Amino acid sequence: MLNNMDTLILSALREDISHEDISTNSVLREATPGKAQLICKQPGVLAGLPVFQRVFTLLDSSMSFQVYAQDGDVIESGMVIADVYGDLRSILSGERTALNYLQRMSGIATHTRKISDLLNGSGTRLLDTRKTTPNNRIFEKYAVRIGGGQNHRFNLSDGVMLKDNHIAAAGGIANAVRMARKYAPFVHKIEVEAESLDMVREALEAGADIIMLDNMNQAEMKEAIAMTRGRALVECSGNITLDNIGAIIETGADYVSCGALTHSSPILDFSLKNMERT
């Protein structure tokens, strides 16, 4: 998933260095070899270390690293994650962009791990959504996987999901599913969003492969799943939190999708400290 990250990282670096790093160039007029330490300031799950490193190597191909952890590791406050070696000018100029990626991705992985741990042994799988930061989707969805979640469709080309507005535009669920079957390649499953039990029945009659129960209460979800068992997969969605995930598990849903993984996870704090000349 991160194979195509260079273009996005270079864009982020251009955003932060439009012409030059005036502060760094003011105090360092020539190449100065040195090192700095990447230090974790909060406990959590590490995600994005390869991205952190790539920021620096795109800025300066001579940069090197000694790493003491890897993506997916549980890390603690005060832990040294890596030593960064190279021209101090490159370390200073890439610092903020590199940390921004690492903090955001580790925050997502940490939040995801908390929810995915609650689902262990339940048979219900955790999914992300397309509610991602523009131009950062590959990083955020990667972080979800590091945290133990699974990716829903990556973009609009990946699968058929008929939501309320698609259904309205098509004139109803039956027509929307019929047209999707006719247009989409046969390898694609068709998912239909249902906001009521009547819509679940319509989706089943239309032959939907997956039904997404949107913002239903637990009783409605249980009844919907009883209706669909063996006829379609069921995804529950809508304001999923650590507090209510237990109720979702009890319904026996196949999947639970959580937009908050990517749009509301707090960052995990890191700093680049102990800089010195070598």
Short description:
With 278 residues, this protein is α/β, with parallel strands linked by helices. 43% of the residues lie in helices and 20% in strands. The strands form 3 sheets. It has a 6-stranded parallel sheet. The protein has a 4-stranded antiparallel sheet with strand order 3-5-1-12, with helices on one face.
Could you please describe the fold and organization of this structure?
- By secondary structure, the chain is α/β, with parallel strands linked by helices.
- It folds into 2 domains: 2-110 and 266-277, Quinolinate phosphoribosyl transferase, N-terminal domain (Aldehyde Oxidoreductase, domain 3, Alpha-Beta Complex), CATH 3.90.1170.20; 116-263, Alpha-Beta Barrel (TIM Barrel), CATH 3.20.20.
- Helices cover 43% and strands 20% of the residues.
- It has 11 helices and 12 strands.
- The protein has helices at 6-16, 22-27, 49-59, 88-119, 137-146, 164-170, 173-183, 197-206, 218-228, 245-251, 260-263, and strands at residues 33-40, 44-45, 64-67, 74-75, 80-87, 125-127, 160-162, 190-194, 210-214, 233-237, 255-257, 270-277.
- The chain has a 6-stranded parallel sheet with strand order 6-11-10-9-8-7. Strands 3-5-1-12 form a 4-stranded antiparallel sheet, with helices on one face. Strands 2-4 form a two-stranded antiparallel sheet.
- The two termini are 36 Å apart.
- The mean pLDDT is 96.
